[in-house]
Protein backbone atom coordinates (compact mmCIF):
# COMPACT_ATOMS: atom_id res chain seq x y z
CA UNK A 1 0.00 0.00 0.00
CA UNK A 2 1.17 3.39 -0.87
CA UNK A 3 1.31 6.18 1.62
CA UNK A 4 0.49 9.69 0.63
CA UNK A 5 2.22 12.57 2.20
CA UNK A 6 0.36 15.40 3.77
CA UNK A 7 1.46 17.72 1.01
CA UNK A 8 0.04 15.68 -1.84
CA UNK A 9 -3.68 15.84 -2.44
CA UNK A 10 -5.41 12.85 -3.85
CA UNK A 11 -7.07 13.47 -7.23
CA UNK A 12 -10.83 13.71 -7.13
CA UNK A 13 -12.37 10.89 -9.07
CA UNK A 14 -15.09 11.83 -11.59
CA UNK A 15 -18.27 9.87 -11.44
CA UNK A 16 -18.56 8.23 -14.88
CA UNK A 17 -22.27 7.43 -14.47
CA UNK A 18 -23.77 10.56 -16.13
CA UNK A 19 -23.91 14.29 -16.63
CA UNK A 20 -24.36 16.95 -14.04
CA UNK A 21 -27.52 19.03 -13.92
CA UNK A 22 -25.56 22.09 -15.03
CA UNK A 23 -24.25 20.30 -18.12
CA UNK A 24 -27.75 19.19 -19.06
CA UNK A 25 -29.13 22.71 -18.60
CA UNK A 26 -26.43 24.20 -20.85
CA UNK A 27 -27.14 21.65 -23.58
CA UNK A 28 -30.90 22.26 -23.35
CA UNK A 29 -30.36 26.03 -23.56
CA UNK A 30 -28.22 25.64 -26.69
CA UNK A 31 -30.78 23.33 -28.32
CA UNK A 32 -33.58 25.79 -27.49
CA UNK A 33 -31.72 28.69 -29.06
CA UNK A 34 -30.96 26.71 -32.21
CA UNK A 35 -34.59 25.54 -32.46
CA UNK A 36 -35.87 29.13 -32.13
CA UNK A 37 -33.58 30.25 -34.95
CA UNK A 38 -34.67 27.33 -37.14
CA UNK A 39 -38.38 28.04 -36.56
CA UNK A 40 -37.88 31.70 -37.50
CA UNK A 41 -36.17 30.78 -40.76
CA UNK A 42 -38.83 28.18 -41.53
CA UNK A 43 -41.64 30.70 -41.04
CA UNK A 44 -39.86 33.21 -43.30
CA UNK A 45 -39.46 30.60 -46.02
CA UNK A 46 -43.18 29.76 -45.79
CA UNK A 47 -44.10 33.43 -46.33
CA UNK A 48 -41.62 33.74 -49.22
CA UNK A 49 -43.08 30.63 -50.85
CA UNK A 50 -46.63 31.99 -50.53
CA UNK A 51 -45.54 35.29 -52.06
CA UNK A 52 -43.92 33.44 -54.96
CA UNK A 53 -47.11 31.42 -55.53
CA UNK A 54 -49.18 34.61 -55.41
CA UNK A 55 -46.99 36.31 -58.02
CA UNK A 56 -47.10 33.24 -60.27
CA UNK A 57 -50.89 32.85 -59.96
CA UNK A 58 -51.45 36.53 -60.73
CA UNK A 59 -49.14 36.31 -63.74
CA UNK A 60 -51.00 33.28 -65.11
CA UNK A 61 -54.46 34.78 -64.54
CA UNK A 62 -53.46 38.11 -66.12
CA UNK A 63 -52.02 36.27 -69.10
CA UNK A 64 -55.25 34.26 -69.41
CA UNK A 65 -57.33 37.46 -69.27
CA UNK A 66 -55.28 38.99 -72.08
CA UNK A 67 -55.37 35.83 -74.21
CA UNK A 68 -59.14 35.51 -73.72
CA UNK A 69 -59.66 39.15 -74.66
CA UNK A 70 -57.48 38.92 -77.78
CA UNK A 71 -59.00 35.62 -78.93
CA UNK A 72 -62.66 36.43 -78.29
CA UNK A 73 -62.49 40.20 -78.95
CA UNK A 74 -64.31 40.57 -75.62
CA UNK A 75 -63.04 40.73 -72.07
CA UNK A 76 -64.14 38.00 -69.64
CA UNK A 77 -66.98 38.97 -67.32
CA UNK A 78 -65.73 36.75 -64.48
CA UNK A 79 -62.86 34.44 -63.67
CA UNK A 80 -65.24 31.54 -64.26
CA UNK A 81 -65.33 32.57 -67.93
CA UNK A 82 -61.60 31.83 -68.10
CA UNK A 83 -62.16 28.39 -66.64
CA UNK A 84 -65.14 27.49 -68.80
CA UNK A 85 -63.30 28.62 -71.95
CA UNK A 86 -60.31 26.53 -70.78
CA UNK A 87 -57.87 29.41 -70.48
CA UNK A 88 -57.36 28.27 -66.90
CA UNK A 89 -57.58 24.67 -65.78
CA UNK A 90 -58.69 25.74 -62.32
CA UNK A 91 -59.12 29.09 -60.61
CA UNK A 92 -56.37 28.99 -58.00
CA UNK A 93 -56.85 29.78 -54.34
CA UNK A 94 -55.33 32.99 -53.13
CA UNK A 95 -52.32 31.76 -51.10
CA UNK A 96 -52.67 34.69 -48.70
CA UNK A 97 -56.35 34.13 -47.85
CA UNK A 98 -56.71 30.43 -48.70
CA UNK A 99 -59.90 31.17 -50.68
CA UNK A 100 -60.85 31.78 -54.28
CA UNK A 101 -61.73 35.35 -53.39
CA UNK A 102 -59.74 37.27 -55.98
CA UNK A 103 -60.53 40.95 -56.51
CA UNK A 104 -61.06 41.81 -60.18
CA UNK A 105 -60.82 45.19 -61.88
CA UNK A 106 -63.20 46.03 -64.71
CA UNK A 107 -61.91 48.35 -67.39
CA UNK A 108 -63.63 50.28 -70.13
CA UNK A 109 -60.56 50.51 -72.35
CA UNK A 110 -60.07 48.13 -75.24
CA UNK A 111 -57.01 45.90 -75.48
CA UNK A 112 -57.62 45.38 -79.19
CA UNK A 113 -59.31 47.41 -81.94
CA UNK A 114 -61.83 44.59 -82.43
CA UNK A 115 -62.88 44.36 -78.79
CA UNK A 116 -66.64 44.71 -78.48
CA UNK A 117 -67.28 43.86 -74.82
CA UNK A 118 -65.52 45.28 -71.80
CA UNK A 119 -64.99 43.39 -68.56
CA UNK A 120 -62.19 42.12 -66.36
CA UNK A 121 -58.79 43.54 -67.18
CA UNK A 122 -56.84 42.80 -63.99
CA UNK A 123 -56.90 40.66 -60.85
CA UNK A 124 -55.51 41.16 -57.33
CA UNK A 125 -55.27 39.35 -54.01
CA UNK A 126 -58.11 39.95 -51.55
CA UNK A 127 -55.66 40.04 -48.65
CA UNK A 128 -55.29 43.29 -46.73
CA UNK A 129 -51.91 42.24 -45.31
CA UNK A 130 -48.48 43.40 -46.43
CA UNK A 131 -45.24 41.60 -47.13
CA UNK A 132 -42.95 41.53 -44.09
CA UNK A 133 -39.95 41.74 -46.42
CA UNK A 134 -40.66 44.89 -48.44
CA UNK A 135 -43.89 46.24 -46.91
CA UNK A 136 -45.77 46.01 -50.21
CA UNK A 137 -49.47 45.22 -49.81
CA UNK A 138 -50.44 41.85 -51.26
CA UNK A 139 -53.45 43.41 -53.00
CA UNK A 140 -51.07 45.60 -55.04
CA UNK A 141 -48.95 42.75 -56.42
Give a written overview of the molecule:
- The protein is mostly helical and 141 residues long.
- The protein has one domain.
- The chain has 2 helices and 2 strands, in the order ααββ.
- The protein has helices spanning 21-72, 79-84; strands at residues 103-106, 120-124.
- It has a two-stranded antiparallel ribbon with strand order 1-2.
- The longest helix is centred in the first third of the chain and has 52 residues, at 21-72.
- It is rod-shaped and about 105 Å long.
- The termini are far apart.
- The relative contact order is 0.13.
- The mean pLDDT is 89.
Mass-distribution shape: rod-shaped
Structural class: mainly alpha
Helical residue percent band: 40-55%
| Mean pLDDT rating | 89
The assembly state of the depicted protein chains is single chain
Poorly predicted parts: none
Q: How many H/I helices?
A: 2
Taken in chain order, the helices and strands follow as: HHEE
Rounded Rg: 32 Å
Major sheet size, sense and barrel closure: 2 strands, antiparallel
Secondary structure layout plus pairing:
Blueprint: H1 21-72, H2 79-84, E1 103-106, E2 120-124
Antiparallel strand pairs: 1-2
TL;DR of this structure?
By secondary structure, the protein is mainly alpha-helical. Helices cover 41% and strands 6% of the residues.
What key phrases describe this protein's structure?
2 strands, 2 helices, 141 residues, two-stranded antiparallel sheet, mainly alpha
